[in-house]
Amino acid sequence: MDSVRTGLPFVTRPGSTPSRKLHLIYRLHVEPDVRARMAVEEYDKLPDGGREIGIVEWINYRETASLPIFPPIGPALAAMPSPHAVVADAALPAVTDDNYTWI
Fold this sequence. Notes:
103 residues; little secondary structure; 2 strands; 13% helix; flat
């Protein structure tokens, strides 16, 4: 699926991933005792049947501005006055090849 056929903007992800992923960002508070029992790794399946291991890391929301987060929500998160601030409109501009580059 591409933007020509769907009419929707998107970002061309490098690599051989055959399908697009929908990334959803949730803001929530997780108590330290619960966090200690949560997974510390995530696994992405590779085309050769192997898997890529990603490390789950908890960080302060203020540290997100310079991170390569997709969708690029880091600057908006870091700009919040507090982690509990009310967000009136969570929509960000569309992410396309014109305004985002995979690293």
